[in-house]
Specification:
alpha+beta; 2 domains; Archaeosine Trna-guanine Transglycosylase, Chain: A, domain 4; five-stranded mixed beta barrel; Methane Monooxygenase Hydroxylase, Chain G, domain 1
């Protein structure tokens, strides 16, 4: 039977993937306590996307698939505040959570690794890598600066996670990627996303930069 862990949860409007770096500014007392506990007990916390609710000062209902985050750096600030850096470790499935014993959410969760029984078709890997390269090229043209990755690997899991991190799509779309049962399904979903994103970016690039005349952007509600 798979082991069940009881760990602190940090609901955010952000989706974290394994291997991704997450900088956070900790200012709420409840999360200051959570960070101190994680450091003292040398345990990770679970990052979960908020399905309903808010990040600050109120309750939040999280999605049930998230990623464990391990604190790697802490910068203490005045008033108990701190800047921390955490790194995503393992994907998990959240079975239940509560806020009765601690001021922050505690969750009972099980690790949920991507369980591919067979590697994806090599053509799928090449298509996703090529589409990701095109995506970065189009973003660079729109941003007016060079955006690139040192190396885009063909290892299935690494490519899938790197693509998910790179895509500039809404958090709920990233959550769908995180929830894909297998790496192959994740890559197939990314192939569709990249096709749609690249089509939209090509139209924006073809349209050219917006006019300099500020009056053309004036909007009045009167």
């Amino acid at each position: 039977m798979d082991e069940v862990y009881r760990l602190p949860l940090f609901p955010l409007h952000t989706v974290l993937f394994p291997g991704q770096t997450l900088p956070l500014h900790i200012f709420e007392p409840r999360y200051q306590l959570m960070v101190h506990r994680c450091l003292a007990e040398e345990i990770p916390f679970g990052v979960v996307l908020i399905q309903e609710g808010v990040e600050v000062g109120g309750p939040a209902i999280p999605y049930t698939v998230g990623t464990l985050a391990r604190i790697t750096d802490v910068e203490p600030l005045s008033g108990g505040r701190m800047n921390i850096t955490a790194v995503g470790e393992h994907r998990f499935h959240l079975h239940r959570y509560d806020e009765t014993q601690e001021p922050y959410l505690m969750g009972e969760l099980m690790l949920w690794p991507w369980g591919d029984l067979s590697p994806p078709d090599p053509s799928l890997l090449l298509t996703v890598r090529s589409a990701l390269e095109r995506y970065l090229t189009l973003l660079s043209r729109l941003a007016g600066e060079t955006l690139y990755l040192d190396e885009i690997p063909l290892h299935p899991a690494t490519l899938a996670v790197l693509t998910a991190i790179t895509l500039q799509v809404p958090p709920r779309e990233k959550q769908r990627l995180l929830e894909q049962p297998t790496i192959r399904q994740m890559l197939e979903h990314e192939r569709r996303l990249l096709r749609e994103e690249n089509r939209a970016l090509r139209l924006l690039v073809a349209a050219g930069p917006p006019p300099d005349d500020e009056e053309s952007f004036f909007f009045s509600a009167n």
